[in-house]
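Predicting holo structure, iron/sulfur cluster bound.
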Amino acid sequence: MVTQILPEAPAAAAQEVRPSRFTYAVPHDDGGLVVYNSMRGAITYVPESHAEAARELLGNRTAVHRRLDLPDELRPMLDGLLARGFVVPDSDDELQDAADLRDQRVARTDRLELILMPTESCNFRCTYCYEDFGLDRMLTGVQRGVTELVRRRHEESGLTSLSVSWFGGEPLVALDVVENLSEFFLDYCAANDITYAAGMTTNGYLLTPETARRVTDLEVRSFQVTLDGPRHTHDDTRSLMGGQGSFDTIMTNLRGLAADPDLDLDLMLRTNFTPENVGSVPSLVEEIGEIAARDDRFTVIFRPVGRWGGPDDDAISACTGKDAELLKLDLNRHASDAGMGVGDTKMLRPGGTVCYAANPWSLVVRPNGLLNKCTVALRMVENMVGRLAPDGTLHLDDDRMALWTANDETQDSGCRSCAFRPSCQGAHCPLIRVQDGVRPCPSVKTWIGANLQTFADLQRQGVAVVGGAA
Ligand code: SF4
Ligand code: SF4
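Done. Tokens:
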């Protein structure tokens, strides 16, 4: 599918327009342009035959065009760009729109996101893991605190939306905690007209079809499972606690899930790549494609392994910078060729690269009731933002909370003038600001040209790019 801006696009409503400050127009290697707007999440490929007109209208960010003054041949292009938000009426206050977007996200009191650790124990010992497995099952008083917190939020703040992410450790090691709390969430939300969604980050070893049915029946429907390449590389980095490989069991589980079309789930397969395993990741992609190609319940993402604070950090060789980004994009293309959906396309939408840690209504609940914001730096003092009491009261340190929730575009003039601001809001990774005091630009923005070109190509292959074809 080639997405084109066609001459018969709707007529412009406004007479004076200018390029949106959130529009990117980047050249495509095959000719033509890729045009993207981060406020609309819209991306389109303009073929070379129409590209000159688009360049003329988008090339100068400050130029104001009066439609009536334009030559006839440019007017259809102007209408198309306006209809899709790539140009905007000159009277639009886009900076205010961007500020509103961030403020509306932060101000929500009717929403609660809980990242629950039913245990910090894990049946794996991944080489790059940053957890110390110090805390076991979630205490009964903490589980009660979670249910009371939800009740309080509803009674005191009119909760309308609850989202729960099960995290660990390995959450399926404490399946009974997941089930007990999920039953409460499901019943309480149904009785009180609260929208409820739940997901789980799991290593996949215990995610048999039978377990998947048990938890999907409780509305836990989104899963993230990690595979570090095919068997020989995966088992090197993601072994069981006793050192045995885990690949074959995970693949058996995935085959079972894919073979049951009645299982209503979304499963994102994450592959962490290093200089050592990256060459064999395409063969994993093909293996996955044989199981789940064109099954829109399954998507893939690829991430370079980083030094995430684990004890083996010094021994880890990491792909970084542009090399890592280009490898990631190349793997996305492999995945698309293998018929797999690509999860990264969601980053293009407004808010698509904001980390949950930046949301005041998002909290990580540890098994002992300690509250964190970020799921990576668990033992960092600034990340210990409070404690959950058994009666559901949140004892929060407001100053520490603000480090994660207010340390964003509002404090940073560079972010306020950034063309990617609606997606990132200066809040892609609050940990980077807290730790290093620098802007946490997501790699998709740093290498925007290569990313937009890849996403436009995927869209032309029929992959759904979030925000949609413009
Ligand atoms: S703050 Fe950064 S490291 Fe922590 S969860 Fe968010 S993106 Fe990850
Ligand atoms: S952190 Fe970077 S990408 Fe995000 S808004 Fe600021 S300048 Fe833009």
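Residues 409, 414-415, 418, 420-421, 424, 426, 428, 439-441, 445 surround iron/sulfur cluster (ligand 2) (CB under 6 Å).
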